[in-house]
Amino acid sequence: MFSRIREDIQCVFERDPAARNVFEVLTTYPGLHAVMAHRVSHALWNIGLKWLARLNSTLSRWFTGIEIHPGARIGRRFFIDHGMGVVIGETAEIGDDCTLYHGVTLGGTSWNKGKRHPTLANNVVVGAGAKVLGPITLSDGSRVGSNAVVVKDVAAEETVIGVPGRLVTKGGSEKDRKRQVMAKKIGFDAYGITQDSDDPMVQAINLMLDHIHAMDSKMKSMCEVIEQLGGRVDDIPMPELDSLEIHGGGEKHSKIVDNTRVGDKE
After folding, report:
1. Is residue 194 over pLDDT 50?
2. How many CA atoms lie within 13 A of 167 on its CB side?
3. Cα–Cα distances in Å, from 180 out to 20, 71, 195, 240, 244?
């Protein structure tokens, strides 16, 4: 038991740069107090003293603002930062080295008995205000962004953001790759800061990039037709791009050099 307490204290220093010394952590960190109280409540719950376990859990909630059901199973080095408003349901399971921030709910979506709360594997981080609901699994190393609502399983090392929760993918869809190519071509990077944001401005920019891409493709086709009819199209040098060029559903790696533009009148 004392080894668990030492681990719980040490993990505070590893994950909170504001922690200064052991005495301060022991006396002023409600997340640590809630975890320590839960260790006692869970032990009482397992030996059949369920009312006493619930009473201890309720007292802990009054003092810390953190509600952890005595039946929840929590692993080693579990850290709740700030803590106020955290709710962890009866059948929730939390692995080792997990971190929750304030306002997190590990809740159920059913009134039926049995497994109805989430399972967090090892090294999972859930951001402030996030809701993880139902008997789902967040695999090792997964991350949940602040205020996200997650109702489906999350694979290892994946990150989920938004409402409803969606994966933040590294490669992106075909449309995303087209947007990145077009953004670079016109000298603008729409993905530097808010690639996965739901911000209306970013959505508007993405629509503009889609429109520019369509115009660019149509202009290229027009130039090809003009040349076939004997017309002349001046070449205007454009910067080279190392990216994916997508042709009619197929993909090929190439240098993209757009030199087909209608020249100015002489």
Report:
1. no
2. 14
3. 45, 48, 10, 14, 10
